[in-house]
Amino acid sequence: MITRRTVLASLAATLAAPAFASPKTPSGIMELAYSDHSPRNMLDIYRPEGPGPFPAILDIHGGGFLTGDKRDLRVPRQVLDRGIAVVRMNYRLSSQSRWPAQQDDVLSAAAFLQKHGKDLGLVTDRIALGGRSAGAFLAVSAALSMVQAGWSPAAVVNFYGPMDFGSMDADMARLDLKVTRPPADSAQSVESLLVGYAVGDRRKEATAMGPVGRLAMMAEGVRLPPLMIRHGIRDNIVSAHQAEHLRTAWHRVDPLTPIDFQLLPDEGHGTAAFGGDKVLGDLASFLARYLVPVMSG
Question: What's the per-residue H, E or C state across the chain?
Answer without folding.
Answer: CCCHHHHHHHHHHHHHCCCCCCCEECCEEEEEECCCCCCCCEEEEECCCCCCCEEEEEEECCCCCCCCCHHHCCCCHHHHHCCCEEEEECCCCCCCCCCCHHHHHHHHHHHHHHHHHHHHCEEEEEEEEEEECHHHHHHHHHHHHHHHHCCCCCCEEEECCCCCHHHHHHHHHCCCCCCCCCCCCCCCCHHHHHHCCCHHHCHHHHHHCCHHHHHHCCCCCCCCCCEEEEEECCCCCCCCHHHHHHHHHHHHHCCCCCEEEEEECCCCCCCHHHHCHHHHHHHHHHHHHHHCCCCCC
